[in-house]
Amino acid sequence: MAPEFERIAELRRRSHRPGGSVRLGIGDDAAILRPEPGLETVVTTDLLVEGVHFDLAWSTPELLGRKALAVSLSDVAAMGAVPRAAFMSLAVPRHLDDAFVEAFFAGVLQLADRFGITLAGGDLSSSPGPLVVDSVVVGEVEPGRALCRSGACPGDLIFVSGTLGSAAAGLRQLRSGMTLDTATTGMDLDAIRSHVAPAPRVELGRALLLTSIASAAIDVSDGFSSDLAHICTESGIGAVVDAALLPTHFTLDDALHGGEQYELIFSASPAFVPRIDLVAHQLKIDITRVGRFEGPAGEMWLERDGRRERLEPRGWEHFK
Amino acid sequence: MAPEFERIAELRRRSHRPGGSVRLGIGDDAAILRPEPGLETVVTTDLLVEGVHFDLAWSTPELLGRKALAVSLSDVAAMGAVPRAAFMSLAVPRHLDDAFVEAFFAGVLQLADRFGITLAGGDLSSSPGPLVVDSVVVGEVEPGRALCRSGACPGDLIFVSGTLGSAAAGLRQLRSGMTLDTATTGMDLDAIRSHVAPAPRVELGRALLLTSIASAAIDVSDGFSSDLAHICTESGIGAVVDAALLPTHFTLDDALHGGEQYELIFSASPAFVPRIDLVAHQLKIDITRVGRFEGPAGEMWLERDGRRERLEPRGWEHFK
């Protein structure tokens, strides 16, 4: 392994982005960001642990770096904020070489470029165990306007972007030993790609805030049922979901409870349906109404074949 | 283990700090901070990996949590910035129970209270290997005034706060099996305490900035020789250190190369010596002049018993 400092010097050259909101990036005791006057700062952190969140055999180092950044960008998207800077910390097992770390950061920098953000810092350590990644993204948002989990009102409709369940189906295929290279059907390929290369909905989150459409939003990281439950709990409201409306090519279980989908769930008044259609059209993103908010706090129901059953949050919980 | 969400809810209650610069803390997709108008934002991240940076037998979970926050506060101190919010991510091995995680965060919150900052977020995961902690601190600093590594000028003197080498001596004792409970001499106790409970020099960093004393600063995380070398490299200058002046009760090797001391090294014009004496007196911190900046970039010399020898950066490098 090259010494830590040479590695940092190399990253520093590659992540340099003159101007922008990062005044001082990699290479001092701390990075210095220049906030836009009048804006609030958002900060999110996501741990990815080998053997818990990923297996090195599932993907490439580039895609893993890309995903580590994507999951944090997804949190920023769910706030309706603009991402500005990323900080990526890695505890690296000794069996992984320089080429792995370089490829990982190539993936990070590629996605950072795509969203115009700077890799402004992080930390590197060896690890006597698994690869552990902590991804931090700092962003900015108009004061008081961030899309929180707490803003859903009775009568608001529930919307979800894209499709559900593909990342869960992809995870199942990856666990069975299938990879992007060995997948043969288009559906398996889509599913695996959805798991290893999720696309954060940054533009959508931004549009939902700027058009004042969404009253609350969250990204589907734990699973639709669990993430909807977060909105219900924080907003002090219940929800009714129509199973037939859930946008998925996979099983109802995958759609309801599959994690790491990184689509956005948001609440909006029925009056905003035309505006939502316009945003969906402009961004070329499917946005589907899947239910409505109503009833007692935290009580979720699933309507299915004319019957109504309780919808339990059965998404991913790391500590279970 | 309690589910992640209950754990977060509990932390959320305990870390709540009304008013202040954190508008939304633990419990949404991201935290929201309200920057002070006109200030810049500083961000620093530090990984602590069990088996690399610490051993669970060396200390208590409270002290470990305290130290994780302290090392990031030390980076903020070295910039002369005011810390505002902390984000703490943990990958926790299954053999560690709820009580461990609670005690860890009790230590974090205790030090956070001491500096008036909010624990505003983080992430929790299980770990199939070691305990891994990523500590992130966000702070604020007057625009263009942060104490960078790049500001040292020819003729500036080299100052260091407190004493050097105790954390390295403490680490040696910890590795030999000694602990805070079994140490018998005052010197061993001081050394071990210095390693497991470092005190970040936040007030000193702030004073160095506000009084315009320091032209450059860094904290002693890797070791005096390596951290001084960072200032030399970034400032394009050399340094001459007088061995007899180094403030230490331990060996010259510990003083020069021992890491994790978390004192500040800074550069200042000789004209500021009276001002420095005043700051030292007011903050009740020893500040010692140990050399001067001069000569070609990166060239460091140690004066010792009337002879001059090359001073090599031999502090800690995680990847070696």
Task: Provide an overview of this structure.
The structure is a homodimer of 320-residue chains. With 320 residues, chain A is α+β, with helices and mostly antiparallel strands. The first copy, chain A, has 2 domains: 4-141, PurM-like, N-terminal domain (60s Ribosomal Protein L30, Chain: A); 157-310, PurM-like C-terminal domain (Phosphoribosyl-aminoimidazole Synthetase, Chain A, domain 2, Alpha-Beta Complex). Chain A has 9 helices and 14 strands. Chain A has a 7-stranded mixed sheet, with helices on both faces. In chain A, strands 3, 4, 5, 6 and 7 form a 5-stranded mixed sheet that branches. In chain A, helix 4 (166-175) crosses helix 5 (186-196). The radius of gyration of chain A is 20 Å and the shape is globular. Strand 2 of chain A pairs antiparallel with strand 3 (40-49) of chain B, so a sheet runs across the interface.
Fraction in helix of chain A = 25-40%
Class based on secondary structure composition and strand pairing of chain A: alpha+beta
The helix/strand order of chain A is HEEEHEHEEEEHHHEHEHEHEEE
Shape of chain A: globular
CATH superfamily of the largest domain in chain A: PurM-like C-terminal domain
Radius of gyration of chain A: 20 Å
How many DSSP helices of chain A?
9
Average pLDDT taken over every residue of chain A: 93
- Known CATH architecture of the largest domain in chain A: Alpha-Beta Complex
What kind of sheet is the major sheet of chain A?
7 strands, mixed
- Kindly state the number of beta strands of chain A: 14
Number of domains of chain A: 2
N- and C-termini, Cα separation of chain A: 36 Å
CATH class of the largest domain in chain A: Alpha Beta
Oligomeric status of the shown chains? homodimer
Chains forming the largest contact: A-B, 73 and 73 residues
